[in-house]
Design goal:
Two copies of one chain form a homodimer. Chain A is an all-alpha fold and about 160 residues long. Chain A has two domains: about 5-55, Multidrug-efflux Transporter Regulator, Chain: A, Domain 2; about 75-145. Chain A has five helices and two strands; from the N terminus they run ααββααα. In chain A, strands 1-2 form a two-stranded antiparallel ribbon. Chain A starts with a helix and ends in a 50-residue tail after the last helix. Chains A and B meet through helix 1, helix 3 and helix 5 of A and helix 1, helix 3 and helix 5 of B. Chain B binds a DNA duplex (30 and 30 nucleotides) through helix 2.
DNA sequence: CTACGGGTTCGAGCGCGCTCTAAGTCAAGC
DNA sequence: GCTTGACTTAGAGCGCGCTCGAACCCGTAG
């Protein structure tokens, strides 16, 4: 299978596939006599899984770590497992955050309700008060925010860690 | 309340607060006689809500749209409502995708299970096959991928839209 | 008077994950 | 023989959302 076909089947672009290979997310593909990449269908399984990791917000550098472990053979399985377990926890808390936010959205939308159904606009206070009387929720906690920059053990992210 | 205090209370940095004001996400703050921003505590409610939108993956340009509508007064409530309803759908499908991925992760982790508990490594085929025999799942569908670049009505994102 | 700890503006820079261009090779079809 | 189209490489560029540096201003404490 050539790169174009793989692109079609995987939903990635050929550009992206080459990029993934360059950075090591995909193994270096074998070439045919024309020096073109020649893929085995099994790569699709791996790409599919990468897609899952990506969809769940795993940064590329972590996928890379996993890919490296995988390349390291069976001895690395415990590490791989731990990596995935940690990620699973992250995803679970992500889901929890989203569900939390969904409640807030529901409340907000309910505050706007009827503006169309009934004919009257101006449901008085729905503008600035933001019906977020739903729950206090400590400020500085809407942080289900993966992607910390500059890796170091710097501040957890808020404010003047300088 | 000055910007530093707001930063502390909101969890944003002062830099970010100014940035948000610059782009219009936050209303231009009133200044004291020293020309320094002076905030009312009510801004925290708005920042908190923005945090929710952000946590659920809404791009800034959409938050901006919402902020503009809000500034447009009660007449825009139906629009605001539609905007939030659309976003809520996006979030719901995001949650569904994540839960889907969680199942895959569970399966994968189960495939690695015991490598530590029992003493034997090398649970044979857990390496390249990737126990994603969990379910076929059409490739090209791991796309719970908000953030489309270059806005236009271009291709839905995959492959050579050129 | 001086230092310091805020604040201000403007604009450059960064990390991420692609995305695209340019210039070239090759094989098949007209 | 020539065009077409899919491929190759290296490397530049982009959109997003901040993040930071530089240079400056101000008010208060020592």
């Amino acid at each position: 299978m050539k790169i174009g076909e793989l692109a079609r089947q995987s939903g990635l672009t050929a550009h992206t596939i080459r990029y993934y290979e360059r950075i090591g997310l995909l193994p270096r593909a074998g070439r045919d006599r024309q020096r073109q990449r020649d893929y085995d269908a099994s790569i699709l399984t791996w790409i599919e899984f990468l897609g899952r990791l990506k969809a769940t917000g795993m940064p590329i550098r972590d996928m890379l770590r996993y890919a490296e472990l995988r390349a390291g053979g069976p001895a690395t399985e415990p590490d791989r497992r731990r990596l995935l377990e940690r990620h699973r926890e992250a995803v679970r808390s992500q889901v929890a955050t989203l569900q939390d936010c969904l409640l807030v959205l529901d409340g907000k939308i309910a505050g706007y309700a009827g503006n169309e159904i009934a004919g009257y606009a101006g449901n008085e206070r729905t503008d600035d008060h933001d019906s977020s009387d739903i729950e206090p929720i400590h400020p500085r906690e809407h942080d289900a925010d993966r992607r910390r920059h500059r890796s170091g053990p710097a501040g957890p992210r808020p404010a003047r860690a300088r």
